[in-house]
Amino acid sequence: MKTTNLMIVGVGGQGTLLASKLLGKLLVSEGYDVKVSEVHGMSQRGGSVVTYVRFGEKVYSPVITEGEADYIVSFEKIEAARYLSCLSNKGKIIVNNQEIDPMPVITGAAVYPTDVLEKVKESGVFVDEMNALDLAESAGSAKAVNIVLMGRLARYLGIGREKWVKAIEETVPAKTKEMNLKAFELGYNYEM
After folding, report:
1. Which domain does 33 fall in, by range?
2. Could you give the number of structural domains in the chain?
């Protein structure tokens, strides 16, 4: 069984840690050997965050190097571009087309690039772009972007929808369960 390499990238405060926890729980319940890395970057609000998730029959290291990622789930456009070199030539990027200004833009030292996703697409990789923020808000909370993106990822991993639902129910706080399940369905059913 081939090891699958997946990266979850975003900005601190977007819920990347909950997404990786949910994914890890699901993959372990499916019988995979799973390695999830420590978060690299600044996990407080505003800093770039990346989590590596590797799963297969036997996985020895959590780290994904350049050209190895089968999937990148990007919570923000610049983060998709930042980690593009990690994607394999047959890899896929699922990207939330949201813009979150990094610190240099906030301080006025830089300008947010207007064509960041166009450049990613011009590289020839498969890009599944969506407005996950709008979908999350329609589910009930902007904080559900992470679950919308996990819903989209579910379309590619080949693990049954009902197993994702069970993992969500076991991972999210009880008071947010229905909203998160709606967010998952919106991401899963989104048409490109």
Report:
1. 4-189
2. 1
